[in-house]
From TrEMBL:
Name of the gene this protein is made from: LOC113426544
InterPro entries cross-referenced by the UniProt entry: Ig-like_dom, Ig-like_dom_sf, Ig-like_fold, Ig/MHC_CS, Ig_C1-set, MHC_class-I_related, MHC_I-like_Ag-recog, MHC_I-like_Ag-recog_sf
The protein's name in its UniProt record: Class I histocompatibility antigen, F10 alpha chain-like
Family: Belongs to the MHC class I family.
Signal sequence annotation: 1-17
Major subcellular location class: membrane
Amino acid sequence: MALRLAPLLLLVRLAVGFPESGFGSLHSLKHFSTCTSDPSQGQPHFFYLGYIDDQVFLHYESNSQEMQARVPWVKKAKEENPQLWSNATQRVRDSEDLNRAKLEFLGSGYNQSKGFHTLQWMFGCELRGDGSKEGFLQYGYDGRTFITFDKKTLTWVAHQPLAEIVKRKWDDSAGPNQKWKSYLEEECIQWLQNILSYGRMLLLRTEPPEATLVRGKTEVEDGMETHICRLDGFYPREIDAFCMRDGEIWLQDTFHGSVAPNADGTYHYWLSIRIDPKDRGRYRCHVDHNGLQEPLDLDLE
């Protein structure tokens, strides 16, 4: 298996030096590519997305054959280093050819000469505020995990019968596996720190949540009220929010949404609680986030 590193490794090579300490929360650098066997309605055979902290900062698709910058600081890097950008684009084109060949191999192995099939390639790393690190590398076929890399044992783990053949082939040569371990544990983390430095104003900023309380409908059957605490426009992603009754955390009849991205790169979140309206004054919504000087407490009254 040829080791193909992501294009951003060339793109941000001239970035400023690495920070020496943690950043106070979780940061991640992730790469996703998808190769399809039978694109239709203008969909590309292959596309690649580069994520920094769950936000797309690089994009490539086979129809245009061009890498696209998705955030201002990457656009600036492209303008300042056109040759590096050209090299980065060529790296992804090479990755496209490699993944098409792998997809054809899997289609042949499964005796699938026609139809729509996908090969997904995912790898990256995470750096937490306490200094701990994590890395992952895996392939998926038709929406199911196909094979994953275990960097502790320097071996591949097969999740489907056909993957056993691939595992034996890739495990026969220790060199590429050792390079992947080195990349996931060292190089990827260094590039993540490098990118955070390059995009410091955007990626290391803090935006406090805007909190809004909404009183929902009152149930006809039992007279219970639903109250919704909406939190919007915050960054980074990590947020701690829960309902309290009489000053203590209250989990009964409490429901939580998922933290989701906004179009401007910030996030939104919600939680709700069903209460007896007679007890409304006993409840509050508690919110804590890095962007707040002190936690918020919103009374439901």
